[in-house]
Amino acid sequence: MRHADRVVLVTGGSGGIGAALVERYLAEGAAVGIVDLNGEAGERQAAELRSRGCRAHFAAADVADYASCEQAQRKIESVLGPIDILINNAGISPKHDGKPSPVHRMDPAEWQRVVAVNLNGAFNFSRLVTGGMIDRRYGRIVSMSSVAGKAYLGDIVACHYSATKSALIGFTRHLAGELGPHGITVNALAPGRIATPLVRTVSDAANNAVVDVTPLGRLGEPSEVADVCCYLTSPDAAFVTGQVIDVAGGWLMT
After folding, report:
1. Is 138 a catalytic residue?
2. Do residues 223 and 26 make contact, with C-beta atoms less than 8 angstroms apart?
3. Tens-digit pLDDT profile for residues 179-219
4. 3-state class of 131 per DSSP?
5. CATH classification at residue 192
6. Dist. CA 36–CA 14, nearest whole Å
7. CA angle 102-200-202, nearest 5°?
8. Residue 189 lies in a domain
9. What is the mean pLDDT of the chain?
10. Which sign, positive or negative, has the C-alpha torsion 164, 193, 216, 140?
11. What is the pLDDT of residues 49-76, one digit of tens each?
12. 3-state DSSP call for residue 111?
């Protein structure tokens, strides 16, 4: 129960890694605010969790829209209390017939949307919650980057995804320096190929090719990413900040 009595906000919390994060933090005693664009799925998820006796609350929001994020933050804090831990997990990686768009064919609107969700979304919620964290001299922020933020994965993701995931690494390191004096740690995770619906948007051949060059010889599980995230926000990692931790089974070791 390392997170007993903490309030956690997870963006993109209704599926994949986000849903695993929600379950893991609830298991460790936290109250969890879930933010997702899919309001119907999120409300069902939160209702099911509350039926199990968990402290969970859902707020629909488009993380790319600051006003929408602010409304969701206020809704969650009005029910659960001030946010202690922020997990910037929401992200998208559009494909076309299972393949990423090359830059010379990319719709500029698609580029803008990916940047707005993957990068601006992390800024929006970080902007909203850090004032309270500074006042309380406590906070934990983890943003979901990717191994694609550190290496070329052209058969799997497009340039907008790689650019935003790389930017999240810089964002994380800057915030770690800026917020450290206020008792706030800021880290990032860089998952490899994790068995989520997003990963299934590319061909089995592409995913199998990754497995073939992954030392542990398999895709990762969402729960394994959640385990590392919970470590980074726990008392066990109180002296860890500004770090990017690969959760990739040894794939693309740098």
Report:
1. no
2. no
3. 999 999 999 999 999 999 878 788 888 889 999 999 999 99
4. helix
5. 3.40.50.720
6. 6
7. 25
8. yes
9. 96
10. positive
11. 999 999 999 999 999 999 999 999 999 9
12. helix
Is 252 a domain residue?
no
Owner of token pair 């994060």:
21
**Count of domains for the chain:** 1
Q: Within the chain, how many helices (H) and strands (E) appear?
A: 8, 7
How many CB atoms are closer than 10 A to CB 46? 21
Q: What is the pLDDT of residues 232-242, one digit of tens each?
A: 999 999 999 99
Residue 140 placed within a domain: yes
Catalytic residue among 66, 152, 161, 231: 161
Count other C-beta atoms under 10 Å from residue 178's C-beta. 12
Residue carrying structure tokens 């929401």: 90
Q: Is a pLDDT exceeding 80 seen at residue 254?
A: no
pLDDT the model gives residue 155? 86
In a domain, 253, yes or no: no
pTM for this entry? 0.96
Q: Which domain holds residue 35?
A: 7-247
The answer to whether the CB of 124 falls within 8 A of the CB of 63 is yes
Q: Which uninterrupted H or E stretch holds 186? A: strand 184-191
